[in-house]
Structure formats: structure tokens, C-alpha cells
Design brief:
It contains eleven helices and ten strands. By secondary structure, it is an alpha/beta fold.
Length: about 325
């Protein structure tokens, strides 16, 4: 009997000596992300796993999209972080969107209070139309789906329509899956969808009605506003979607992690530092889009909208 107990006792002793107790929770932080099936939500969960052993309890909250995230970070001090598209943070984009939240009088405050924590990955603009449309300016007088008002797609679509001086007959604030259904029935001429490449909802190899992606060339934009500096030239290729027979020029916009002056400076700064120092871990163990994330410390520290808390921590 003693022979059996003795080795077992040694085993318990070794476990007690070498087991690492979890770090006590030092900070509780809330992140507004995206829909539960979205990349943003999944990347938020990756951050949750990274930060927990370091004493940061990250609550990842699903949302309807970029605009809702910005509003919630602005309105509630208990919500310290949000994921948003860079172009959504402009006065022009938010002006067309925030009336639904009843805070249009605070628009300038919202824009000026948002602070950059870290850049994330890029999303690409998809404009899907029937084959007979070849150029972006052919969307004048057409029925166009531009995404729900709380989404980043909605703001980007409005910005691009304004930049190219496109005046649709009608815009519909509906999600891409519903828009695709209507287009197949001939009830829409175009839909906007802003997403990472490739987007699984567009990877089907055939449509009931033949469709394609419109090319987008920022050099042809009529409105030479500062919004042009928010976008990068990119390309959508047959490697992304098998139904394409050639590459299509398009543009992309950066997704970023934002905060406001919530009084949680130490928490936000430490969180940013942990993400910065552990990007390789996230790229190895997290969502594949982490591999599209990179940090240029020198450039980041010069960014005029960088959170002072993050600047101090880096």
C-alpha cells in the first residue's frame, strides 16, 4: 500500500512545484468587434487568449460593424476598444451614418476623440455587377446596395459614390447576401461589399445571372478630397475567386484598433504593448489574417492620432 502511495505523493509534489498559477486579473477591458462569424470577432478572441495569462481580461463583444463600434467606444467609458475601418473615422463618412444613433450634434467630438491603438489588416472594396456594366461611372441612375448603416461597408460605399460623383437612382442599406439575391432577380444593378480577400461568400464558382467585379481607379475620382489618402491601390485576382478570368484593380482600406479617453490609460497601453511584442505568436496561433498585420514602430509613433497611452507604452 505504501509503495503505491509514495510515487503518487511525489507526483503531486512535482505538479505543485512546477505548475504556473494564472496571473491575477489586473485589468478588465471590453472590445467591440464584429459579427460572431466575422474575422474581427475571431481576431478579438485571439487577443483574449493572448492577454489572459498577462492579467488582462478581454471581453469580446459582437456588433453590427465599424460605425456601432466607434459610437459605443465614444459613449461608454466601460468600452475601451473597438475595431473600425480607417475611412469610417472621417467626418464625411460618419456624417451620413450617426443620425440613426441620435448624436449628430456630437459628430465632431466623436471624430476628434477617437485615437489609434494599432493598425490591423486591410479590407478590399468589391463592387459586384451584371456583365453589361464595365465602368464605375455606369452606376449613375442605378439601384445599388451599400450595406447596413452600422457597417463599414456603408460608409465606404457612400464615400466612393461621392468621390466619383455617382448619383444612384436608389441605395439600399442591406447586407451583401440579401443584395446578391435581389441582383440575381434583376432588382439591383450593383452591390458594395468591403471585406478581406478572399471573401468566402463570393467564392462560389457560378451565379444564376453572370456577374463580375467592377474595376476601381482612384485616379479617375472626380472629388479630390483627402479621402483618397485613406485608400491603397490593390488587385483582386483569379487566385482569390476562381470565377474571375483576369485580375481587377481595386482599393483597400485599413482596419484599425481604436480607443478614446476612457480613463483606462494603463490598461490600453499595456494591451497595445503585449500585442506589439507578441505579433509572431498571434500569427502562428491565431486567425490567418494576423499574417497580414505588421507594425512600423517609427511610423506608428509619428501618427498624429496615436493614443498617448500607447505611445508611452511602446
Amino acid at each position: 500500500m505504501n509503495i503505491l502511495i509514495y510515487p503518487f505523493s511525489l507526483l503531486l509534489l512535482s505538479v505543485s512545484l512546477f505548475a504556473q498559477p494564472p496571473s491575477p486579473v489586473k485589468y478588465e477591458v471590453t472590445l467591440m468587434s464584429g459579427r460572431e462569424a466575422s474575422i474581427d470577432y475571431k481576431m478579438g478572441k485571439d487577443l483574449q487568449h493572448l492577454l489572459k495569462p498577462h492579467g488582462i481580461d478581454l471581453n469580446v463583444v459582437p456588433s453590427m460593424g465599424s460605425v456601432e463600434n466607434i459610437i459605443k467606444v465614444y459613449e461608454f467609458p466601460s468600452i475601451q476598444l473597438g475595431i473600425a475601418q480607417l475611412d469610417t473615422l472621417t467626418f464625411q463618412s460618419l456624417h451620413s451614418l450617426v443620425h440613426q444613433f441620435g448624436i449628430t450634434s456630437e459628430l465632431q467630438n466623436i471624430v476628434s476623440n477617437m485615437q489609434l491603438v494599432l493598425p490591423l489588416y486591410s479590407k478590399t472594396v468589391h463592387v459586384l455587377t451584371p456583365l453589361k456594366y464595365k465602368k464605375f461611372d455606369e452606376l449613375n441612375g442605378k439601384r445599388i446596395a451599400i450595406g447596413r448603416r452600422s457597417s463599414g461597408t456603408h460608409g465606404t460605399a457612400l464615400s466612393l459614390l461621392r468621390m466619383f460623383q455617382i448619383k444612384p437612382e436608389k441605395t439600399l442599406a442591406i447586407d451583401p447576401p440579401r443584395a446578391l439575391e435581389l441582383m440575381q432577380k434583376g432588382q439591383l444593378e450593383a452591390l458594395f461589399h468591403i471585406s478581406a480577400l478572399p471573401d468566402s461568400s463570393l467564392q462560389q464558382t457560378s451565379f444564376a445571372q453572370p456577374l463580375h467585379l467592377l474595376p476601381i481607379d482612384l485616379h479617375q475620382a472626380q472629388d479630390k478630397s483627402l479621402l483618397r489618402h485613406l485608400y491603397q491601390v490593390t488587385e483582386i485576382s483569379p487566385q482569390h475567386y476562381a470565377w474571375l478570368d483576369h485580375s481587377i484593380p481595386s482599393i483597400s482600406v485599413r482596419n484599425i484598433l481604436v480607443t478614446a479617453d476612457t480613463g483606462e490609460c494603463a490598461a490600453v497601453g499595456q494591451l497595445a504593448r503585449l500585442i506589439y511584442d507578441n505579433l509572431a505568436w498571434l500569427q502562428q496561433h491565431g486567425h490567418e489574417k494576423w499574417r497580414d498585420v505588421s507594425f512600423d514602430k517609427e511610423r506608428l509613433l509619428k501618427h498624429r492620432s496615436l493614443s498617448p497611452c500607447v505611445k508611452q507604452a511602446l
